[in-house]
Backbone:
């Protein structure tokens, strides 16, 4: 077989670095401290993000039924942002997903910005998933 034909027969391998940023903003009505606790603590995350969370230092184990995923906290600033990197994420991106909290000094209105790196063909599905998850979070905190 000639080389060109062989290359077409090999499956296309996708790497996490092929991912694109998905950025979604959600208005929130609660204190930055309260919201940050739901984004950064095992007890807060298990209320809306997954079934259970265990942490040891900056390593978090997330559980969805029998599925377990491990992430590390890359950077954080209390009440402002937290960035997580999935253990299996070998991309050059600094983080896999981030939660950022902004509060308008004049009005007190809050904004939660979620940034996630997703496969281009899964962008719509991941946007829907995040919207569902954050809706659960906002309901949980009464926002």
Residues:
């Amino acid at each position: 077989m000639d080389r060109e034909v062989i290359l077409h027969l090999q499956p296309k391998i996708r790497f996490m670095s092929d991912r694109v940023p998905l950025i979604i903003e959600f208005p929130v009505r609660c204190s930055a401290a309260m919201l940050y606790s739901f984004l950064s603590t095992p007890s807060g995350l298990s209320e809306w993000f997954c079934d259970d969370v265990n942490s040891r230092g900056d390593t978090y184990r997330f559980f969805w039924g029998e599925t377990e995923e491990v992430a590390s906290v890359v950077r954080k600033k209390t009440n402002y942002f937290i960035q997580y990197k999935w253990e299996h994420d070998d991309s050059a991106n600094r983080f896999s997903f981030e939660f950022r909290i902004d509060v308008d000094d004049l009005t007190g209105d809050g904004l939660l910005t979620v940034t996630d790196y997703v496969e281009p063909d899964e962008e719509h599905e991941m946007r829907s998933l995040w919207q569902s998850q954050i809706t659960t979070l906002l309901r949980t905190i009464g926002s």
The first strand starts at residue 20 and ends at 28. Strands lie at 20-28, 52-56, 59-64, 67-77, 81-86, 97-103, 110-118. The CA atoms of residues 17 and 93 lie 7 Å apart.
